Amino acid sequence: MFPQGRHPTPHQAPGQPFKFTIPESLDRIKEEFQFLQAQYHSLKLECEKLASEKTEMQRHYVMYYEMSYGLNIEMHKQTEIAKRLNTICAQVIPFLSQEVSAYDCCFGPKNSPRAESSVAYKNFALRQILTIEHLIVPQDPASPRGTPLPSPRENGLDKARLLKKDPCSPASTASSASSSSLKSKEMAMRDKAGTPGLKSSTPTPRGDSTPGPSSTPGLRPSLSKPPSMEMPHPPSLRTPLAVPGPYPGAFGMLPHAAGMNGELAGAAGAAAYAAGLHNMSPQMSAAAAAAVAAYGRSPMVGFDPHPHMRVPGMPPSLTGIPGGKPAYSFHVAADGQMQPVPFPPDALVGPGIPRHARQINTLNHGEVVCAVTISNPTRHVYTGGKGCVKVWDISHPGNKSPVSQLDCLNRDNYIRSCRLLPDGRTLIVGGEASTLSIWDLATPTPRIKAELTSSAPACYALAISPDSKVCFSCCSDGNIAVWDLHNQTLVRQFQGHTDGASCIDISNDGTKLWTGGLDNTVRSWDLREGRQLQQHDFTSQIFSLGYCPTGEWLAVGMESSNVEVLHVTKPDKYQLHLHESCVLSLQFAYCGKWFVSTGKDNLLNAWRTPYGASIFQSKESSSVLSCDISVDDKYIVTGSGDKKATVYEVIY
């Protein structure tokens, strides 16, 4: 009636009598239960092993899928480069003399000595091609390099303004051959012509050099290379293969921008060519300027400067909204799921939201500008460089020299932070020294009225309490020093960071402090109880942060080039991907509706709070190390690696 062996008794020896008494039956049931339990554990282990193998297979699948995707993109890129070269050749041939054929251009006449050195002659032909190519792309030579670029306003949707092109013009023909390109790793390598960057005492993948004799660990500056070091060959000896461009690509030529689905963006390609004129040899640049005068065309403007962006390590399915450009803003849920953010209709409109920023002044500091701040009311700008802070009066745009110079710290050490007290009468300066300088600005000639000495060899950032009674300094040893400004004494140290504390901000009510460090953590501190409240762990060093004045949002800039906007009480956050290198500074507008970030990629980005819609961008000529926003949100000042500060007027 029942199948044999339905209830196996593995511990029953052959020939042993069955147990029929109640104790024996209980023993037999116990033995069966133990046997089943052992089987369950065995099956559970097998299940866990299979689950781990499945996860590993999925990881390999994603890796191979991304590799195939990258190879496919590379194949399309090479195809488009070939098409582009064919188009350029077709444009060059009409400019050649009638007796020179297309074969002569590439290989030299048959049976001639030139044919034996065809490689050298091909280089000469390529030089001719690139020269003509730059001649037919118009560029206004008077346009400043720091002018704001139209930004990719829609997340993953192509909302860039289209160019009005003359269908018969050579520029229109050239721009139609634009091709797609992946973000090049050489961008970061070329940008290593360093500016003072953030550096840990532990090895990191950055290659920043360290200026000055100081051996302080942590945040360290690096000197910019002189122009002679960046051009290893004289211009007369350089071939087009050696001509640098803002976006490196195959053959040293400028790759074109394309959207997710491979659609061509001719405007972006042409504008990238025009931007490349700044990096040409003098002969080619002069020829291009002459061509601009001859053609008399308006400069090409209005392109999407980041359609080539891809989020590193992200599956292709998340890189953009279907049918649109690659997304740069992602919402990260509590479970780690990332989704492109659909921006609301009022993301870029409304009171308090700027339209763009206009460069109105350049302050030639003379050294790399690591710290900047603006007075209230907006009249003076303070720029910190090597060994001094210079004071500039920007109420008169014609002023090209500072009104005073405050010699701080040691002459060879960089100023890392300078902060004005709310009354504008006192300036606190910190940097690569164990002392903080307190300056009295109310006197006719600014003077040092006190110095605060710390046990740490350097200070990387400063914050002032809203009541002006307390100063907080981020130290290179990871501690946060709390100073009583009235008594000029150290009253407390917050300990928690295991590497240098790099950035700091304080809430408007003065009850909470936020700090970021080179130990990959962001921490919040309760200033009333003097204890740590929260800790957020990241996979990258923290270089900058800012706390929104009106909301519960904290923006964090990282070495990995990401900007993350965290909700301080909820687990969700936004991740922004427009920077191409480490994010060196970050500042919220006082209205709280937008914030700016700057980076080693020479970019100033303005973002909408909190979801990160790109409001505007400005590309400077070197790494942008520091920034500040005026109290009325009408001005932005940045400090950069090319030894100057730039003042922008915010246009609403």
Which tags fit this structure?
652 residues; alpha+beta; six-stranded antiparallel β-sheet; five-stranded antiparallel β-sheet; 9 helices; 31 strands; 27% strand
Structural summary, described in words:
- The chain is an alpha+beta fold and 652 residues long.
- It has nine helices and 31 strands.
- The strands form seven sheets. A six-stranded antiparallel beta sheet has the order 3-2-24-23-22-21, with no helix packed on it.
- A hairpin with a 3-residue loop joins β26 (594-599) and β27 (603-608).
- α1 packs across α4 (118-135).
- The termini are far apart.
- The relative contact order is 0.11.
- This is Transducin-like enhancer protein 1.
Q: What proportion of the residues form beta strands (DSSP E)?
A: 25-35%
Question: Main sheet, how many strands, which sense, barrel?
Answer: 6 strands, antiparallel
The percent of residues in helical segments reads 10-25%
Give me the side-by-side strand order of the main sheet.
3-2-24-23-22-21
Radius of gyration: 31 Å
General shape: globular
What low-confidence regions span 5 or more consecutive residues with pLDDT below 50?
A: 110-122, 131-147, 158-313
Average pLDDT for all residues: 74
Per DSSP E runs of 2 or more residues, the count of β-strands stands at 31
The N- to C-terminal Cα distance equals: 89 Å
Please tally the helical runs, counting DSSP H or I stretches of 4 or more residues. 9
Query: What class, by secondary structure content?
Result: alpha+beta
InterPro entries: Groucho/TLE_N, Groucho_enhance, WD40/YVTN_repeat-like_dom_sf, WD40_repeat_CS, WD40_repeat_dom_sf, WD40_rpt
Domain Groucho/TLE N-terminal Q-rich: 18-100
WD repeats: 452-493, 494-535
Biased composition (Basic and acidic residues): 183-193
